[in-house]
Amino acid sequence: MLDRATIEAALMRMLYPLVSFLIDHGVTESHFSHVARKVFVKAGAEKISQENRSAAGKQRDPTASAVAVLTGVPRKKIDELLYDSSESVADDEWYRHRCAKVLSQWWGTAEYLDDKGTPITIRLTGDAPSFEALAQMSGKDIYFKYILDELKSAGSVIELEDGTLQVQEKIFRRSGYSEETLQSIADTYYNLGATIREAKLSDNKSVYQEEVFTLRAKPEQAAVLLRQIRESTGKFLSKEKDRLDQNSLAEDAGEAVRIGVGAYVFKDDEMAQSKFFARPAEGEDKKVSNE
Fold first, then answer.
1. Measured between alpha carbons, how far is 40 from 45 in angstroms, rounded to an integer?
2. 59 and 102 share a domain?
3. What is the pLDDT, as a whole number, of residue 26?
4. Which domain holds residue 131?
5. Residue 101 domain-assigned?
6. Could you tell me if residue 208 is inside a domain?
């Protein structure tokens, strides 16, 4: 059985690109943890249902206790997460990004509004109305200037020539991703992850996943190699798209099957090679946990 250190190292590498994207999108750790727990419960329930169908030959809903044993999620939380009809996380205060809370308070607190209900320009420090006092309404555990730096970086707040601060946005947006882009990224993650699971961990021969790479590319040649690979891969995908288009003849949408082929060309960035996310070297001694 794999030791804890090996599992955690692999998970960190798998999650790093996703978490980095979520941070850019303003998703907090608490929000992600809630969604991850919901996915654990629903994936566990689906796995139990599949096993029940294989064993009994008929559909049988999994029990909350069975899902709790498989996933480690407390039993009392199972029904709440499994049968939640909403696919989005409730807009509870603790899920929200600290910057989003500050903006909400700026737009919704009387002493930070003028007679028309418009947010006023405020000074940086001192008693309310000031940014320091505003930020501390959400807690004093984070130095208020770090929150301001993030809001200014996102364009949510600007500093005027006299040093006062003016709010520009009502909603905190750390990135400019559109809903369409977000959905496209989600589809790509799902397609690749599901394919890897089936190709590497099962006998499903209808899917395929493989990759080739080198660990010894010369930095000065990397750009040329990447361009050549992109060009050849683009030509390959264009031919496969023609093949799929020519064979997409199912008249009944209910009987149609979604199939496709994807490609990715990669180059490790500095973060992926850091001490936190580096792939363990072959033959490297692992520290075994005594827990």
1. 8
2. no
3. 78
4. 97-167
5. yes
6. no
Q: How many angstroms separate the Cα of 149 from the Cα of each of 109, 123, 134? A: 21, 15, 14
Name 173's Cβ contacts closer than 8 Å, sequence gap at least 6: 26, 154, 156
CB 45 within 8 A of CB 62: yes
Backbone angles phi, psi at 163, to 5 degrees: 90, -5
Look up residue 182 and give its amino acid.
L
Q: Give per-residue pLDDT as tens, 250-263.
A: 566 566 778 889 88
124 in a structural domain = yes
Contacts of 19 by beta carbon, 8 Å cutoff, 6+ apart? 32
- Mapped onto helix, strand or coil, the DSSP state of residue 10 is helix
Give the residue ranges of the chain where pLDDT is below 50.
87-90, 283-291
The secondary structure of residue 121, as a DSSP letter, is: P
pLDDT computed for residue 177 by the predictor: 67
In a domain, 147, yes or no: yes
Domain C-terminal end among 44, 62, 94: 94
**For residue 280, cis peptide bond before it (omega within 30 degrees of 0):** no
Which residue type, as a one-letter code, is found at position 258? R
Domains: count for the chain? 2
Environment class of 9 (CB within 10 Å of its CB; exposed 0-12, middle 13-18, buried 19+): middle
Check whether residue 135 and residue 152 sit in a common domain: yes
For residue 240, give Cα distances in angstroms to 23, 143, 261. Answer: 35, 53, 8
Q: Of the residues 94, 113, 133, which one is the last residue of a structural domain?
A: 94
Q: Give tens-digit pLDDT for 176-197.
A: 667 788 888 889 999 998 888 8
Number of residues in the chain: 291
CA distance 120 to 114: 6
